[in-house]
Amino acid sequence: MLLHLFLVLLSLARPFSVDAFSIHQRPRHQTSLSPLSFSIPSSIDFSDALSSVSSSSLSISGDESLIESTIQAAATQLMEAKLFTGMAHVTLDLAAFVSRGTAWLRLGAVMGRLFVIGADYIPDHSINTDEFLFQITMMSISLIGLAHSILPALLAMTFPTSKETLMKDGRAFQVLFRSVGLTWFQYKSLVASQALEWISVPPRQVITSEEDNQSDDGVYWLYQGEVRVESQGQHLHNVTRRVAPRLSDASLGLFGETRLVEDPQSFPPTTLTAGDTGAILLRIRSGKLKSLMAHDVHIAESVRKLLFRSMQEKLKAALLLQS
């Protein structure tokens, strides 16, 4: 009986002791301290950290390259602006020393204005409105002048000429214009601009009269035939050319050249009449010629030389007649 009771108590006490022991003994690998806990990092954690560091390094290097490229772009723009400024000074200041031709001067002025606008615009891609309007205005003036200088040359390259007219043009150029410094191309530009034209006058017909002196701006040069010259009702002299004119007396066949001076009204007007055989003359429109002279310094110098030589030869001829 007692033995049976001891066995029953032993069976009841064994679960309690086992449970008590299991509570106090825990596996070492699951040990944790509250409230702090520790864990050993794995290889995945190391790879994530390395990726984060490398991405940060790439971000920093990307920012540095962006800053460096920005600085290089700014330096390049500044260099381009300085280059454009230098080119503007060269074209605006030195064009006059490179060539005396008006067309080249105006072309240099146009290019200079473009370089000035580019130098102001390149650094910050903006330009002051007042400066822009000023440069555009000056460039427009230069462009208009350049068009006036180039247009006669373009007309000369496309102007049709007959064989007969070409022969007369060649002779007129050789004996009248070449000796005063005019080139053949400039002569053709005068013809294409209608500053020069050939006219045939029937016998005894008035070419220009004293009454037409205000309206007629023509200067006439006798190529072949006869012309009678009168002034204030008095006969002055006749000029006759049976063949093409010679270089020695070419300027003697020039009439009305005083219309090319600044004050032609100070000279007495004349009346020109074709002779019995008629006359072939080269008519020079002084108004158009003066306009071309204003845009081409070479033509202006040649016309002044022609005017001076004509007056000189006529004065010499008058002195010879008086002697």
From TrEMBL:
It comes from the Eukaryota. The keyword Nucleotide-binding does not apply. InterPro entries: cNMP-bd_dom_sf, RmlC-like_jellyroll. Keywords: Signal. Gene3D superfamilies: Jelly Rolls (2.60.120.10). Residues 1-20 form the signal peptide. This is Cyclic nucleotide-binding domain-containing protein. It comes from Fistulifera solaris (Oleaginous diatom).
